[in-house]
Design a protein that fits this description.
The termini are far apart. The protein is an alpha+beta fold and 340 residues long. It has two domains: 10-200, 2-Layer Sandwich (Heat Shock Protein 90), CATH 3.30.565.10; 215-329, 2-Layer Sandwich (Ribosomal Protein S5, domain 2). It has helices at 10-21, 25-38, 67-72, 100-106, 156-161, 165-182, 206-214, 263-272, 312-329; strands at 43-49, 55-60, 109-115, 122-128, 131-138, 143-149, 187-192, 195-200, 222-228, 233-239, 251-255, 258-260, 285-290, 296-297, 308-309. The chain has an eight-stranded mixed sheet. It has a five-stranded mixed sheet with strand order 9-10-13-11-12, with helices on both faces. Helix 1 (10-21) crosses helix 4, helix 2 (25-38) runs parallel beside helix 6 (165-182) and helix 8 packs parallel to helix 9. The structure holds adenosine-5'-diphosphate (ADP) and magnesium ion. Adenosine-5'-diphosphate is lined by residues 31, 35-36, 39, 60, 62-65, 73, 78-81, 95-102, 144. Residues 210-328 form the DNA mismatch repair protein S5 domain. This is DNA mismatch repair protein MutL.
Amino acid sequence: MPDIIQLLPDSVANQIAAGEVIQRPASVVKELVENAIDAGATQITINIKDAGRTLVQVSDNGCGMSETDARMAFERHATSKIREANDLFNIRTMGFRGEALASIAAIADVELYSKQHDSEVGTFINIVGSRVQKQEVTQCANGTNFLIKNLFFNVPARRKFLKSNSTELKHIINEVQRIALANPEIGISLIHNQDPVYEMASGDNIRKRVVSIFGKGINQNLIPVNTETSLVSIKGFVGQPKYARKTYGEQFFFVNNRFMKHPFFNRAVMQAYEKILAPDSYPAYFLYLEVNPDCIDINIHPTKTEIKFENESAVWQIIQASVREALGKFNVMPSIDFDQ
Ligand code: ADP
Ligand code: MG
């Protein structure tokens, strides 16, 4: 019998990886904006057409890329953020897997303009379905500007799976909210079909950022949380019980400036509110945890929203105690009247 096993070409491997990393236009927004943050940008503009079907454009004023790096960036497992396995236990950047750009370029038409601040000229690259169509020297602004068009052009099943524009836009807005809350000091604009959705100034603090996303009404309902232990520091805000909603949507955990989903820690917050919430309602919270990067594992899923903690139950206790203390200080009594 002849041997039958072959190594897949990179373009196919990238397309397979893309299936996990890029699920919808919102994933493209997330990956590109996270790259802009890692590049040290203080201003990021996200320009979307037709909920990302026609265009996802992300431009930043970050460090930019050299001509060689601009091409390298699209290779699989190509990253400037880690160098060796040990670095995985000390991650301070949003990215480190080196697969987002390779994935996006495998399933879309990508244009990149990038220029380093001390460089006279920039680089333009166009890649479609992992194939470089054009690379040339160009005049462009400092920083990086990505235009992603024709997403999923060669993955018909994915394209068909996309929901209505309003649903896809909602996913994009959710991603932008998470990133904007995680990085209040960064200026972020989101434009959809020429209309501004968010225009968040750089230099915000957490409270200002929360208000610019959820509206002025939330401001007097924010109760500060501030806890410092050797294991974890927690800051941010929890909402007054009377501000709780019947639906989820204003619950956010961040760890080392990264949004995370954590149903177990969510229960710690819920328990702290026990008996002071109307039934079936959810308190708002914006809790920012800082831990030593070697106590967490971010590398569980390509989208990195799941995070494993080494001392999960101890952190759980600290979260619960901090929220309880914050609520206690603000004299939130068990017998408040709920406006139902
Ligand atoms: P990762 O972020 O995991 O390193 P990506 O595929 O997202 O992988 O990006 C590959 C590399 O391209 C990054 O490590 C970075 O060096 C470079 N890069 C990507 N986006 C930008 C940007 N907006 N500004 C500067 N460099 C960037
Ligand atoms: Mg990245």
